Amino acid sequence: MRLLEERPLAFRHEGACEFEFEGKGHGHSLSGRSDTSEPACVPSTSRVPDGDAVYRSVCILQAMTDRPNAHDALLGATSELTYEYGITGTGVDAIAARAGVTKRTLYQHFGSKDRLVAEALNDRNRRALLGLETNARRRSEETGELVILALFDVIENALRTKTKAGCAFINASLEINRPGHPVREAALAHLRAREGLVRQLLSEAGVEDADLAAQVTLLVDGAYAVGGSRRDPAAARQAKAAAAVLLAGRVVS
């Protein structure tokens, strides 16, 4: 087919642009619309006075504007849905629909639901750890308390607002408890990293004690578990009081 013309058409939906190609000949042309990662086409044919067929190929190109790419959209949708409905209670159809992509795109990016959920947890892990530490240090500056104690204030606030169902990583490790499973490994990696943060904050307070670090970590995990299961943010406040007792007389001023 000989291409004669390429011209932009009007926008049909936000984030997409159409282009039309005309030419004479025999055969098929392709045109259509795409989701976030798969340009697609459908054939379009019309007639001109001389009887030759004119094939118009209409292709919609996704605009790279405010909309997240398919990879990030899938991670975000997976994180939201599995936290709200559980991992086994969330299917790939729901994830793809929330992300605005096809199941084909989902499998092209991640290969399997297990890998997608694991990657979503890894992505959440980085943001969660940074948020915990940053907000705990900010809270410590406001109250004058040790950062390790201010950490419990941050947990209480989270349980009251965005993580009412508790810790996503504890929840995932309990739901998918098969050793070696990628989802479980991703969840446990966060819990180990959070324990490392507790040790770091205790060290900054002048406390180098592995047993004490394990005890405070248990209080952190317990605050999330009890606060989430009972929908009671006050669990973090009670855990903070217990941590303060453990730290009494141990902190180097």
Task: Report on this structure.
The protein is of the alpha+beta class and 253 residues long. It has 2 domains: 2-62, no CATH class; 112-247, Tetracycline Repressor, domain 2 (Orthogonal Bundle). Helix content is 57%, strand content 13%. It has 9 helices and 4 strands; from the N terminus they run E-E-E-E-H-H-H-H-H-H-H-H-H.
Number of strands: 4
What is the 3D form?
elongated
Radius of gyration: 27 Å
Alpha carbon gap, first and last residue: 81 Å
Class from secondary-structure proportions = alpha+beta
Which regions have little confidence, pLDDT < 50, spanning 5+ residues?
1-49, 53-66
- Kindly estimate the percentage of residues that lie in beta strands according to DSSP: 5-15%
**Average pLDDT for all residues:** 82
Order of the strands making up the biggest sheet: 1-2-4-3
Can you say what the CATH homologous superfamily of the largest domain is?
Tetracycline Repressor, domain 2
The largest sheet is: 4 strands, antiparallel
CATH class of the largest domain: Mainly Alpha
CATH topological fold name of the largest domain: Tetracycline Repressor, domain 2
How is this structure best summarized?
Helices cover 57% and strands 13% of the residues. It is of the alpha+beta class and 253 residues long. The protein has two domains: 61 residues, no CATH class; 136 residues, Tetracycline Repressor, domain 2 (Orthogonal Bundle), CATH 1.10.357.
Question: What are the SSEs and their pairings?
Answer:
Layout: E1 2-8, E2 16-24, E3 41-47, E4 53-62, H1 70-85, H2 92-99, H3 103-110, H4 113-143, H5 147-160, H6 168-175, H7 182-204, H8 210-230, H9 234-247
Antiparallel strand pairs: 1-2, 2-4, 3-4
Helix pairs in contact: 1-2, 1-4, 3-4, 4-5, 4-7, 5-8, 5-9, 6-7, 7-8, 8-9
